[in-house]
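Please decode residue identities from the backbone states below.
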């Protein structure tokens, strides 16, 4: 197809007309089970009635005013996030990569106003994905995303995944913060152990550093609790969120303790659209559902049920499945076959999964999935695995990692 879109995605030959809960209906009328959730975005599935009501109700009244005025919807959403987390302060953005920019600025300004302007470097972890802006790709350090965009933005030092000795060695006089994902999503659904997170927290406290979590993909119920750091019980000083908080509407934020945010004063940061009435009304609607009685516990049960089923598939297809990874409903299948071929096989079985690095397919169903849909998803994934046992050829070009 001759498209006027910039060709930065290898899009699958597939388009969708509408969605219903955990299901997508293509423009050809075919029903697909959505185990991708728009890359961990549609936590409440498609066309959730409470989100639709919030969109229509607020949309009929007021979409946008700018942050030159009070925005009650943003004030309410910020207070709810503060009440549910470690944070004291919230700044709303439109995306995760914008949240990264704000978090980096906040960390640097903290060190500056604390009398340490030289502490402007941030340690990150190899395999991380923090977005697509120049700062975000410099933080991630993936050569694939950096190629052609040199010189890279200065200020980031990378260490190997789950290597505490390397982390200790990387801390120097210019280090101001450590940035990490509790679970790397695009990096291959790699989970950092609780002991590692505890040790990094101690390193930050001992060296006067800020700890920044990227919970853009892991947050808003995706791993079981509201945020992944709550599973480990190790709180950051700054946290980036997006994806699930808008339920499909572009919304992100960075959260901070009052101490960490001390330098972000009048005029130090801004956003034209971030936190507008429409976006934050929908964000509040998302929290209405996710913070409802029993919702997170039920979602965690579905995650445990799905992970158990995937591990059983690994036992039945050891020549195709190398490993099952992840927590909650952020799961990954590491395959012996090329992951692009497995994703294509899944599409043939009318189930959507998302490719990631390290030859992993991400399994990211909406948090509202039920037991019957878990069983149906496992059935379709098994059918996809069976295609490799039978030696069927697979089309490799089915899109790419995007976040």
């Amino acid at each position: 197809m001759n498209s006027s879109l910039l060709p930065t995605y290898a899009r699958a030959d597939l388009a969708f007309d509408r969605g219903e809960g955990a299901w997508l209906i293509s423009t050809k009328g075919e029903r697909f089970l959505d185990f991708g959730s728009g890359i961990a975005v549609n936590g409440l599935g498609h066309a959730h009635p409470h989100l639709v009501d919030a969109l229509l109700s607020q949309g009929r009244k007021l979409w946008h005013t700018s942050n030159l005025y009070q925005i009650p919807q943003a004030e309410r959403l910020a207070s709810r996030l503060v009440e549910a987390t470690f944070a004291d302060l919230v700044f709303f953005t439109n995306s995760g990569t914008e949240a990264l920019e704000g978090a980096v600025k906040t960390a640097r300004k903290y060190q500056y106003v604390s009398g340490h302007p030289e502490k402007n470097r941030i340690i990150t972890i190899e395999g991380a994905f923090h977005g697509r802006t120049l700062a975000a790709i410099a933080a991630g350090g993936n050569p694939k995303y950096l190629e052609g965009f040199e010189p890279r933005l200065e200020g980031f030092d990378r260490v190997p995944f789950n290597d505490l000795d390397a982390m200790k060695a990387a801390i120097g006089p210019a280090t101001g913060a450590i940035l990490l994902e509790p679970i790397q999503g695009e990096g291959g659904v790699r989970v950092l152990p609780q002991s590692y997170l505890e040790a990094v927290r101690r390193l930050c406290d001992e060296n006067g550093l800020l700890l920044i979590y990227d919970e853009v993909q892991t947050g808003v119920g995706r791993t079981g609790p509201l945020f992944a750091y709550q599973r480990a019980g190790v709180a950051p000083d700054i946290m980036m969120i997006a994806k699930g908080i808008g339920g499909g509407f572009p919304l992100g934020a960075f959260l901070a303790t009052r101490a960490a945010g001390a330098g972000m004063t009048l005029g130090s940061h801004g956003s034209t659209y971030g936190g507008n009435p429409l976006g934050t009304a929908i964000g509040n609607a998302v929290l209405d559902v996710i913070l409802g009685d029993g919702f997170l516990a039920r979602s965690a049960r579905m995650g445990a049920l799905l992970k158990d089923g995937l591990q059983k598939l690994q036992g039945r297809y050891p020549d195709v499945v190398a490993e099952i990874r992840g927590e909650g409903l952020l799961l990954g299948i590491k395959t012996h076959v090329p992951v692009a071929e497995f994703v294509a096989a899944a599409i043939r079985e009318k189930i959507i999964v998302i490719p990631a690095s390290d030859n992993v397919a991400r399994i990211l169903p909406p948090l509202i999935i039920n037991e019957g849909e878990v069983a149906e998803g496992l059935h379709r994934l098994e059918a996809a695995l069976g295609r490799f046992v039978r030696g069927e050829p697979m089309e490799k070009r089915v899109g790419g990692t995007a976040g």
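Observation: Residues 50-290 form a domain with the Aspartate Aminotransferase; domain 2 fold (CATH 3.40.640.10).
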